[in-house]
């Protein structure tokens, strides 16, 4: 059984939220443009990062920074249920009082008080007025940054591999709906295809084809938020049809395009008692 709901708030820089229960669903490797702050409410989840695996049970708090590539899958037959916040880098910078994007020094913590504050703030967006919900949310996120935040990461020195990986990334953005083949892409940036795949994965956490899929899904999110029907969105971002869009969208976002569209438009906090 898979149950999920996504919605977005008018305030807090369009903060995204999701509550879900997954049993057989497996998230493909992906990263978020935003932070992802989640609390496991029941069951257990396994999250695989580039440098290791985390297993989180009830009460566990997950803190993931922007563009950190990871997966997500149930650790037990009963799956897992959680609530997740998606605060923007701009909001987190404001709350941290920093010029650059802050970072979390830990990605999984056991902190009952912090977890309760996050859950209370998350639930308030469905049951309380906007003033109350935004106040609780700011308090919860600011508390996490005080306890587990670090200074912004330094910009890495660009290597030659980073240079042609960046150019390949630019090509994928420019030609998202009609991308070149792998060998053509490699030739365009001046390296062999195997070298490109390896360097691109090192730079962005995903091989070029998976990065392209994530790019298309993100573009689809923006179009869905504008109210464009999923069937029209699919070819606009490079998918064959709505079924093709839906398959990849759910693997990365966790909800189908229609469900995302229903809650993804920036709105005031839902009315008390809404589902």
TrEMBL record:
Q: Which SMART domains match?
A: HTH_ARAC (SM00342)
One Pfam annotation reads AraC_binding
* Annotated keywords: DNA-binding, Transcription, Transcription regulation
Q: Does the keyword DNA-binding apply?
A: yes
Domain of life per record: Bacteria
Q: Which species does the entry assign this protein to?
A: Actinoallomurus liliacearum
Q: Which residues form the HTH araC/xylS-type domain?
A: 166-263
Does the record bear Cell membrane in its keywords?
Answer: no
Q: What is this protein called?
A: AraC family transcriptional regulator
């Amino acid at each position: 059984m898979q149950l999920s709901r996504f919605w977005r708030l008018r305030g807090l820089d369009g903060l995204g939220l999701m509550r879900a229960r997954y049993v057989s669903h497996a998230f493909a490797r992906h990263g978020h443009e935003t932070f992802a702050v989640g609390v496991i409410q029941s069951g257990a989840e396994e999250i695989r990062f580039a440098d290791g695996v985390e297993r989180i049970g009830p009460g566990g708090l997950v803190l993931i920074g922007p563009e950190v590539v990871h997966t997500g899958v149930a650790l037990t037959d009963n799956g897992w249920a959680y609530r997740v916040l998606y605060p923007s880098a701009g909001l987190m910078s404001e709350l941290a009082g920093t010029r650059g994007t802050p970072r979390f020094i830990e990605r999984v913590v056991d902190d009952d008080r912090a977890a309760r504050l996050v859950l209370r703030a998350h639930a308030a967006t469905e049951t309380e007025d906007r003033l109350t919900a935004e106040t609780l949310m700011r308090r919860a996120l600011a508390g996490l940054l005080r306890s587990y935040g670090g200074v912004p990461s330094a910009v890495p020195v660009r290597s030659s591999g980073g240079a042609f990986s960046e150019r390949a990334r630019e090509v994928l953005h420019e030609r998202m709906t009609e991308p070149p083949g792998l060998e053509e892409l490699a030739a365009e940036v001046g390296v062999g295809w195997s070298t490109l795949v390896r360097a691109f994965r090192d730079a962005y956490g995903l091989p070029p084809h998976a990065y392209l899929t994530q790019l298309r899904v993100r573009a689809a999110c923006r179009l869905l938020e504008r109210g464009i029907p999923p069937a029209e969105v699919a070819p606009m971002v490079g998918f064959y049809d709505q079924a093709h869009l839906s398959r990849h969208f759910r693997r990365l976002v966790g909800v189908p395009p229609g469900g995302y569209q229903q809650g993804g438009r920036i709105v005031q906090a839902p009315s008390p008692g809404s589902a």
